[in-house]
Design goal:
548 residues, 6-stranded mixed sheet, homodimer, 36% helix, alpha/beta, 17 helices
Chain lengths: 548, 548
């Protein structure tokens, strides 16, 4: 069967725009004479639509758009259109919607298949909105018996869940049993570092088990914290690749599922994948929320340097403004290094010293703080002055403030609310410090864009004399390993100690993470690139008492 | 049957502390010789425990604490103990936990009943953590056949869900069918204004339908955004009240379920209930996260005045610091009125003018902003200076900053990120402006605590000359009605226009609400007092494109 895989980047909520995109693709691909054009999960509304699904007008608009598509399908009487959309269950009990795959052909719905397995963990809330399918069945279409599934339906592979299977039912096995000759999975499967390989293995396992070609069609694009990497695939019935789509960009290609696969699959380099994910995350956040320029506070440190590089990759140097805001404790090098970075990148650069403002705060507060020693208060005042200045540029010029804090800092609360945490999008929110260095190496792989001085200097907040991060924090390579265990792998401190880490340090990290939840509650939206990010996928109580 | 209803206030995560509280109650109530002591839903761990439920050590600790309770129950061989706890399903497929009622008697578990209906909407995420019960059954205990249910299990009353029944199954009807002679529902049912009456009606309906006495045991206390009002009940089989517990406080009382009810139930006054909810919300947030004092920015407006009154009610005047931070645009009255309020309440009060700091910002930015007219930028700078000063006091003195913005402002984005939105707890986050006035009247019901000047002055942010809120916003009485329809009742603009509101105004409000989602993403945790608050119960996309 000839299938056009439409790896598209829909805008959440923009039903009209998404429909137009689909119709455009239908028109341009029709010259290839495909039997079927396949779009991703919930492609008509964008994934995840969140509580828009609870709006009646939204579901109504979905319906009328599907009806438009029925009409349009008449213009392409040889082409089936398979897309994802929320469909009413038609029942007055239970959640009122299905997460459905809809097959439109010759002016009407030829078949639907609703999603059976509704992910409700980490960032996923599908049981909040959807009822599960009551059954799954194959669909006869042209010369094939299609086994259509939706994202999570394909993820019940016991090999992937060594500890616990989330679901008792395996929809793919059921479709195989029902004699599917071609499997099609429409997905909106978000990226994390390393997921591509897991997904490939998953699909390969299905093929090896059931000996049926498998078409995987994934959404691409950044939607709030989630970045979808695309990487759609078609494997032949022996598990060889007929098509491997690019990561992180829209791609439309017509393939023949009956041929033998000849493409050698190799996963993208992990560091590169994170770089590309962040670039797309920035680009799409801005595009989809109407920003064209950014402003970034350049501290002379590696986090802001990397953020600046990512911004330039995403939206071009002409749209990036870097501001260096030296305080009385900033080193001479910070300004010089920031300037050099800005020159290397060709971005607009300004220096706005904050000492005058800082001293006016101290002057204003001196009576009230009389007799009290300087402490974190004075450090935070500086960070918050910078936050205020960046936001002033945002207000005055309409630039989006990119926040530059990394995951390691955010984890243990080594960051200032309304200070360095200020901004409309957290670029490195889910990037551990050690990965920041790897990304910087990636940036500098061909030539030195991030000045070596920035790469080699000991990390410092420069908020008091001679400060370095390591006065307060464990060395980053150790900290990141502990955080990997504690946050990503949800291991207990006891388990982490057993892996050979120092007990006191592990306990300090665990306590620091738990104690900083109130800060993260107010953190800006941050791009997710690991399997467990802070944010919507990690829901911890704040006014609570526990020690892990 | 003699039942001790233990309307307790557990701390989330504090399994050891909650256990000790239960054991203390067991000891003190034993003199009343009850047959059964009943604690609320998930009382051993506090509700909602959120992702702590995904920690193995947490579930392990629950187990060992239950075992301790087995032993202790031997000291009270005539008393059954019914409490809520997460229990392992013992299955390696599906979610691994039940939300269970556990009946402990004479050293062991006599019976368990798992929750059948798992709320997964608004603020509730139970399908994220729990598997539903596979069956519900009555339990013979002493002379009664107990019909035990957990919170939502009692909420499948078609009368309450005119549009849609969430569940096909009615656990209470099943228990009645199984010949329960006494219904017991353990709950952690959070407060919103007017919910008490709905809940009473719900239980009354069950009793009238099944002619069996009903004991309802609810958690009390503030846990992050949620405030639990308690208000436990016992109705006799005719629907008359045997016991009506107080709202918003712990209460332990032994009742006899076999007597005829003689208490006349009357719901608490709605405005008073919100006042008490907010007081408990402040008190518990502080207690449970280790704060004893607060600092509040007093603007001379009604929001900060009310917040200050609530804080005094919650933690006493000696623990409240009010700071007035006049800018060049503050009226003379603002300082005077704030001072008078502080005097009336007896709280510490300081005036810290921000003009010096403000001018140092303008001076610092004058080159960069040259030729650009003053706009919202300069307004926000002032608000953010205040945020920075309040946070400096928080850092220096260890006080919690209470944020004072109301729901109407937050809804339409009439507030400044990192400015007036700064703080550790948003007291009025879910209180519409018109309700702020009603609460102020409630405060002043006996004597003028909030100066009349504050009550009658036109609301103003005082961030530019002669500014009032109504320059920008619709009149608050209209705005709040539209917001009630749009946010709480999730009506579409079209439906709201049909109710008689001006189309342009409705569309402006809807757009303003949707456009401000990015601000609310970073809002402080705010106390929920209506049926639909911003925050965890309302999940909207940000980088999206839709017009409601």
């Amino acid at each position: 069967m000839k299938i056009t895989i439409a790896q598209i980047n829909p805008i959440v909520g923009d039903i009209q725009g998404n429909l137009e995109k689909m119709v455009g693709i239908l028109s341009s691909t029709s010259k290839d004479k495909p039997d079927l054009v396949v779009f991703p999960e919930l492609s008509l509304v964008g994934y995840p639509p969140k509580d828009l699904l609870e709006r009646e007008w939204f579901i109504q608009k979905t319906k009328t758009s599907l009806q438009k598509l029925f009409k349009i399908s008449n213009d392409y009487p040889d082409i089936g259109i398979l897309l994802g959309a929320p469909l009413s269950t038609g029942k007055d009990t239970g959640k009122g919607l299905y997460n459905s795959a809809v097959l439109i052909y010759q002016g009407k719905i030829l078949a639907t298949q609703h999603k059976s397995l509704l992910p409700t963990y980490d960032v996923f809330d599908e049981s909040r909105y959807f009822a599960p399918a009551s059954e799954i069945h194959t669909i006869k279409f042209k010369d094939e018996i299609l086994g259509i599934s939706i994202c999570e339906d394909a993820w019940n592979d016991p090999e992937l869940w060594p500890k616990r299977k989330f679901y008792a039912f395996d929809p793919i096995a059921q479709l195989a049993k029902d004699k599917a000759t071609l499997m099609i999975n429409i997905s909106s499967s978000p990226f994390f570092m390393g997921k591509e390989e897991i997904r490939y293995k998953l699909i390969e396992n299905h093929v090896k088990k059931h000996k049926v070609p498998f078409v995987f069609v994934n959404q691409v694009g950044g939607n709030d914290e989630l970045i979808f990497d695309g990487r759609s695939l078609c494997l032949d019935k022996e598990g060889e690749s007929i098509a491997v789509f690019p990561c992180f960009k829209e791609h439309i290609q017509t393939i023949d599922t009956s041929v033998r696969g000849k493409i050698k699959y190799a996963p993208q380099d992990k560091v590169e994948s994170v770089y590309e994910a962040l670039v797309l995350g920035i680009y799409d956040y801005m595009r989809k929320s109407g920003f064209s320029k950014v402003v970034i506070g350049l501290s002379g440190g590696i986090d802001s340097a990397l953020t600046c590089c990512l911004a330039v990759s995403a939206i071009g140097k002409q749209n990036v403004l870097g501001i260096c805001m030296p305080s009385p404790y900033s080193s001479e090098g910070s300004i010089k290094d920031s300037k050099k970075l800005a020159q290397n990148l060709g971005v607009d650069f300004r220096v706005i010293p904050i000492s005058g403002i800082y001293h006016s705060y101290l002057e204003t507060l001196k009576t009230d703080f009389k007799g009290k020693l300087p402490d974190v208060t004075e450090e935070n005042i500086q960070a918050r002055i910078r936050g205020n200045i960046l936001m002033a540029f945002s207000n005055k010029l309409g630039h989006l403030v990119l926040s530059t804090g990394n995951k390691s800092e955010l984890a243990v609360g080594y960051c200032t609310l309304y200070g360095d945490m200020a901004g409309g999008l957290g670029v490195l929110t889910d990037v551990p410090k050690t990965l920041v260095y790897k990304l910087a190496d990636f940036v500098n792989r061909k030539s030195e864009i991030i000045p070596q001085e920035i790469v080699v200097k000991p990390p410092s907040a420069e908020l008091k004399p001679n400060q370095t991060d390591q006065d307060t924090l464990p060395p980053y390579d150790v900290l990141d390993q502990i955080l990997q265990c504690f946050v990503e792998e949800v291991k207990s401190p006891e388990e982490i100690v057993k892996l050979g880490f120092d007990r006191k340090m592990v306990q300090w990290v665990a306590n620091a993470v738990d104690r900083s939840e109130y800060k993260r509650k107010q953190a800006t939206l941050g791009l997710k690139v690991t399997s467990k990010a802070f944010g919507v996928g990690r829901r911890m109580p704040i006014a609570a008492k526990f020690e892990e």
